[in-house]
Structures are given as structure tokens and as C-alpha cells.
């Protein structure tokens, strides 16, 4: 009996000692983690001091509601290539980097509801338009920015517990957040600053990299990395819905394929290219839209581009003049 009592007492002592050891370890871990958590919270708060690119675009859009007659939608091809100041009427560029038809549709709906003078919509159609969507496969962080700025729900394919839903620092990445913290959280220069009409000149009017087949291969690889051919039927349906929405609001629609340099065009799949053209041509005819296929327009040279498929300021003015006569 004495032996059993001694063993029980020893077990209790070991148990108490074990709990004390775990408590000390937990306390040390908490002390170690506390400064890191405070730093993370400080960075997150700092990143929220200034409105991000999407918020700034929203604010500019709100200031233009009563005057805008021409609305520009699309991806970065539209963001770079279509200048509101060259259209001859009050216009707003509501295009955005990697913006897909899902967001073009939602933004058009909001604009129709709040732009009383709107009469024309210009929408760019690119090689990747019908096989691309923001989500798990590409730039998912932008989905949360659209939700915060515009109230557009994220795709159902994104997990609701994704930490980017709550953290702007995570959306931009640790490195960019750290650099911005070093600069006192002042907004970093954007590739295309947002002006009052939603457009802004690229910082470099000419490319710093040789526009050759190597760059074209890199670019087509980027396009293919996010391409999903299974999306084509739903994206074509989205474009049809956009055209129907515009027709119901008595809006003119101009669909534009913006110029792309020849080394990149040569790497496009002829089957995808031709299918895109057939589908867009069919929808344009069905809904009375104007379709301008300027992807291979020979009047655009290397000097008009900032890279393989984005126009610089002068090239954008040239393209916008071509589009203007159909938009007014």
C-alpha cells in the first residue's frame, strides 16, 4: 500500500511539473509572438491608411457619374489603350488589370444605374477573354479588392476563409507591404496612375526590354498559365448578357481587339484566335454591336507599345482616335 501511495504521489508531482513546464513554454511562446503580432497588426493598419487602386478608381468613377457619356471596360489592354481625353466626349475608363467579363458585367450594371447621360460602352476583347477568370488559378487577391470597393461578390470557387478576405497586406504580399511600411505607408507608384477620367499615362513611354520572340514567349506563357478552355461557354454567355444589358438601356456598344505586336500574335493558337473572332462576330451581329478587330493593325509599330501587347500614351491616342468615330 505504501508503495502504491508513493507511486501515486510521484505521478502527481510529475503531472504538476509537466503542466508547469507547458505553462512556461506557452508563456515564452506568447512573449515571442506578441511583438510579431503587433508588427503584423501595425503593417495591416498602415496598409489601410490610403485607399488602394480599386478604391481610387471607385472614387474617380463617382465624381464622373453625372457627366460620363462613354464608358470604357475591359482588361489592362483597355486600361492602357483607350484614352478618354481623345474620344471627343466626356468618357471614363473603368477598365482594370486582369479585369474579366464577370467584373465588366457588374461594373456596367452599376454604371447604367447611376450614369444618366451614358450612351456608349467600349469593351475590349482579347485573345484570353473567353478562357480567363480571376480566382484560385490567377490573381485571386483582386477578387477581394473588387468586393471591398464595389461590393461584387467573389467567385464561389474561392474559399471564404481565405485570409486575403480580411488582410490587405496579404493581398499585396509581404515584400510590397514591407517596402510600403519603410516609406511610411505612402502609396507606391502605380504602373498606370489613375486620373479623374480613370486613365493615366504609363511611366515609361518606351519599353526597356527588347520586343522580340523571347518576350513574346514569356507573355504567351503567362496567358496560358491562367487559361481554362472549360470557361468558354460561360464567358460567351456573359458577353451576350453584357450586350443584352446595354441594348436594354439603349446603349451603343463598340467591341475592340487592341493591337498586339507580331511576335506575340504568331504564338497565338490559330484555333483559339479564329474561334474568338467567330463568336464575337456572331454576338456583335445578334445584338447590333460594332466589332473592331485591330489586333493586327499595321499602322501600329514597336514605338507605340510599352511591351508586347500594351500601348503607350501615344499609341493609345492613335488607337482611341480610330475607335472614337464609332463611339460617338
Can you describe this structure?
There is one protein chain. The protein is an alpha/beta fold and 328 residues long. 52% of the residues lie in helices and 7% in strands. It is built from 12 helices and 5 strands. The protein has helices spanning 2-47, 53-63, 76-81, 101-114, 141-150, 168-172, 174-182, 213-226, 232-248, 262-265, 270-287, 313-327, and strands at residues 70-73, 91-93, 120-124, 252-257, 290-293. It has a 5-stranded parallel sheet, with helices on both faces. Helix 3 links the parallel strand 1 and strand 2 (91-93). Helix 1 crosses helix 7 and helix 9 (232-248) packs parallel to helix 11 (270-287). The longest helix has 46 residues, at 2-47. It is globular and about 80 Å long. The model has no long low-confidence stretch (mean pLDDT 84).
Please specify the SSE layout and strand pairing:
Elements: H1 2-47, H2 53-63, E1 70-73, H3 76-81, E2 91-93, H4 101-114, E3 120-124, H5 141-150, H6 168-172, H7 174-182, H8 213-226, H9 232-248, E4 252-257, H10 262-265, H11 270-287, E5 290-293, H12 313-327
Parallel strand pairs: 1-2, 1-3, 3-4, 4-5
Features:
alpha/beta; 12 helices; globular
Number of strands: 5
N-end to C-end Cα span: 102 Å
Oligomer: single chain
Helices and strands, in order, run as HHEHEHEHHHHHEHHEH
Could you estimate the helical fraction of the residues in percent? 40-55%
Number of H- or I-type helical stretches: 12
Radius of gyration, CA atoms, in whole angstroms = 26 Å
Note the main sheet: 5 strands, parallel
Strands of the widest sheet, in order across it, are 2-1-3-4-5
Shape: globular
Structural class by secondary-structure content: alpha/beta
**Poorly predicted regions:** none
Amino acid at each position: 500500500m505504501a508503495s502504491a501511495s508513493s507511486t501515486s504521489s510521484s505521478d502527481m508531482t510529475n503531472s504538476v511539473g509537466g503542466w508547469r513546464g507547458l505553462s512556461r513554454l506557452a508563456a515564452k511562446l506568447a512573449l515571442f509572438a506578441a511583438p510579431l503580432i503587433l508588427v503584423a497588426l501595425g503593417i495591416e493598419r498602415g496598409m489601410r491608411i490610403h485607399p488602394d487602386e480599386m478604391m481610387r478608381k471607385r472614387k474617380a468613377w463617382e465624381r464622373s457619374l453625372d457627366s460620363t457619356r462613354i464608358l470604357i471596360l475591359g482588361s489592362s489592354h483597355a486600361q492602357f489603350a483607350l484614352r478618354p481625353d481623345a474620344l471627343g466626349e466626356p468618357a471614363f475608363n473603368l477598365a482594370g488589370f486582369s479585369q474579366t467579363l464577370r467584373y465588366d458585367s457588374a461594373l456596367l450594371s452599376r454604371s447604367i444605374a447611376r450614369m444618366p447621360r451614358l450612351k456608349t460602352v467600349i469593351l475590349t476583347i482579347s485573345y484570353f477573354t473567353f478562357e480567363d477568370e480571376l480566382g484560385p488559378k490567377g490573381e485571386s487577391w483582386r477578387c477581394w479588392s473588387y468586393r471591398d470597393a464595389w461590393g461584387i461578390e467573389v467567385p464561389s470557387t474561392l474559399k471564404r476563409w481565405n485570409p486575403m478576405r480580411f488582410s490587405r497586406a496579404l493581398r499585396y504580399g509581404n515584400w510590397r507591404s514591407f517596402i510600403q511600411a519603410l516609406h511610411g505607408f505612402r502609396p507606391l507608384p502605380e504602373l498606370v496612375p489613375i486620373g479623374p477620367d480613370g486613365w493615366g499615362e504609363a511611366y515609361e513611354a518606351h519599353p526597356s526590354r527588347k520586343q522580340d520572340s523571347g518576350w513574346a514567349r514569356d507573355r504567351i506563357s503567362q496567358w496560358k498559365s491562367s487559361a481554362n478552355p472549360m470557361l468558354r461557354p460561360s464567358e460567351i454567355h456573359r458577353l451576350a448578357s453584357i450586350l443584352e444589358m446595354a441594348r436594354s438601356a439603349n446603349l451603343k456598344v463598340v467591341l475592340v481587339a487592341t493591337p498586339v505586336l507580331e511576335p506575340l500574335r504568331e504564338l497565338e493558337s490559330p484555333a483559339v484566335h479564329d474561334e474568338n473572332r467567330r463568336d464575337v462576330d456572331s454576338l456583335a451581329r445578334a445584338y447590333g454591336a460594332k466589332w473592331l478587330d485591330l489586333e493586327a493593325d499595321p499602322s501600329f509599330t514597336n514605338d507605340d507599345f510599352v511591351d508586347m501587347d500594351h500601348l503607350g500614351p501615344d499609341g493609345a491616342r492613335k488607337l482611341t482616335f480610330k475607335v472614337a468615330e464609332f463611339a460617338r
